[in-house]
Amino acid sequence: MSEYYSTVSRSQTCERRTDEVSGRSSRGTSNVQAAPAAVSAQGNWADTNKYCFGIDVGGTTVKIGLFDEEGALLEKWEIPTRTAENGKNILPDIAQALRDKLTEKKLSREEVLAVGIAVPGPVEKDGKVHRAANLGWGEFNLSEEFSRLTGFRTVAGNDATVAVLGEMACGGGKGYRNLVLATLGTGLGGGIIIDGQALYGSRGAGAEIGHMHFNDDETEVCGCGNKGCFEQYASATGLVRIGRRVLQETDEESALRGKELTAKAIYDEVKNGDKLALKIAEEYEGYLGKGFAMIAAVVDPEVFLIGGGVSKAGEILLPGIEKQYRKYAFHANQNAEFKLATLGNDAGIYGAVRLVLDNAE
Length: 361
Description:
The protein has 10 helices and 14 strands. By secondary structure, the chain is α/β, with parallel strands linked by helices.
């Protein structure tokens, strides 16, 4: 394909394949928590000739999915991410995990189409990584190195951009061609789709929305080394930071006092009507609404998808963000929708396999 991130145009079958009593595979539901599908008597998955691996490399675990050639999840598992010694063991560990799975399922190397891999950091079109600090990596060509280790064609991408591809194909973004995914966790990751294609940029950093400059007066340093980044206010970490400040500024009673302050704790008390929790949430949602309005003025999405740990608060999160967004958004961007991402921790592996299927040779 001529474009690195092309329109999702191939089959978008997302449901997990499961074996029935007959031993034949069939399309099941999209509940990816179901038990792994069984293998046929010959040791191969029934009715499937080719396979793909989707890999999502995180700072703690590596999530791996085995998919069929239509993009249906067959099985998923995790291995630890060994970040010691500048992450030198991460790729060899993944390569070994793939070899072990092929042996377990009695699959040949020739039956593997390719591998898609998502990592936290900017990734260029040719697979070159520009420093993945959480993994201890500097600059190197990830696609080339993993292909050398495994012999498999490898397509690499930034984890948040890959996640939005997964959500567009199989999750909350299905049916949309212009969308923004914001993952609200320890940091704030972003993925952007414009006219069905993911925004990549000249150096793989085209959707680093968490590092938009937001506040000239900030004194604390962001993880990127700058001060005043969007993620310092709009991540789960930012929410807790707001919460601590609000609690320190007043003696007003709150159920949040005397307990560990987390994003979950804050939104649990929002649901209970706690006044200070509501105040914290209002300020937090204000930052999100303003930031999303800024993004919308540039990329004009149909929908914003909210993912990451904060999204586990559920639908209660959306009205406040939407209200603040309408306050700041340019008139032509006012009708953008707000939805929760639905693939959760599986978005990365689904998106990684889209890299393979949408860039088939």
